[in-house]
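Hey everyone, long-time lurker, first post.

I ran two proteins through the pipeline my lab uses and got sequence/structure pairs for each. Pasting them in order. The first:
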Amino acid sequence: MKRCWACSYASMEMRIAFPALLERFPGLRVSPWAEVRAFQMVYGPASLPVAW
């Protein structure tokens, strides 16, 4: 089964970026008034409001 190179790149980016972001901003969290909309199975949410 073939996979798009961008899929592998995005997966690697998320494994590296999210832990680094949370390490840099330990108080970062999803905003309590956030409305996560436009969720699509492939593309994910259009936006994710955060607070710290």
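...and the second, right after it:
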Amino acid sequence: MRRRIAVVGGGPAGLTFARVLHRHDHPVTVLERDAAPDARPPGGTLDLHERMGQVALDKAGLLAEFQALSRPEGQAMRILDVDGTVLRDWRPRPGDRANPEIDRGHLRDLLLGPLDVQWGRQVTRVDPGTRDGVLVHFSDRRQETFDLVVGADGAWSRVRPALSTATPHYTGVTLVETSLTDVDTRHPHLAALIGDGSVAVYGVNRGLVAQRNSGGHVKVYAQFRAPLDRPTTLTDAEPSDAGTLRSQVLALFDGWAAPLLDLLRHGTAFVRRPLHVLPVSHTWAHIPGVTLLGDAAHLMPPLGVGANLAMLEGAELAESVAACGPDDLDEAVRAFEEQMWARAGIWATITAAGLDRLVSPDPAAALALFDEVQPG
């Protein structure tokens, strides 16, 4: 009899897990609270690392399709001073595919492929250790039982409480996101400023990053240190009043060069995202039938690692589940968790230190960090 497996969450981690299992001809139920794939904006762009996210896609049999969709030119990175002076201008060499970019929406569609996702299924909690397996409770009061439930449902996971009492804590840094559309035709001076990839500027306890997506779309991220001014919930990342939030953010960057401020002045919708993390060494006592992936397991600052780790974990867990014998599922999951904790702890430490340097009283610390991670 086939094992009943469910993954909660239709993000990169959950879909990679499901897609690799599908490749091994193993059924899996994907439970996603969004009503449809386009129920909300998919987010910005991701750089998928050669030894992480791309490995996961290879395990799913999707690497060639990814390479056709991705944007190697998006690896370009430019650092400016607050007066607009170019401090660093790094461009990828021909054929460099170490960290090509792909829009989150394109990646989601690539991973979805033939998967049968149950949309609009909001999980409220899971109860392991029942007689028939792990009991999953839904917001519509229905229940289902599975042999393995994988929580890939993000920072405010509803699966995590079955394993851990840990909750995300605020880093002291808030990010405000906005967007520019048709930048090449509507704002050519900003298109030239951004280049093919990203432009970043670091000031005293401030940072401003603009990153190209496909189709002339640009995401702009203003980051700054501030107290947490309101509770954070599952729906915290909602659009705010554009005029009010734009004015507040512009005031924080007062004195910066006019073209840099134009990245904010011309933004459309604004979303406030206080950055939260789980403890660096977050682990849990293993419980049969339930485990976690990605942000649900090891939420860390968004410095280009989280999605890559999540996808690699999803692929590795899926391969372990597909390969294990009928009585070895629990041991396979336990071994996966040990491997995940060791690797995630290293990256959580690195990204926590990186955030402290990027948004710090000393802008030179951010520039030094950039020099350490860029080749050549």
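Reply from user beta_strand_b:
Welcome! Quick read of the second one: Residues 198 and 211 are 4 Å apart (CA to CA). The longest strand covers residues 169-180.
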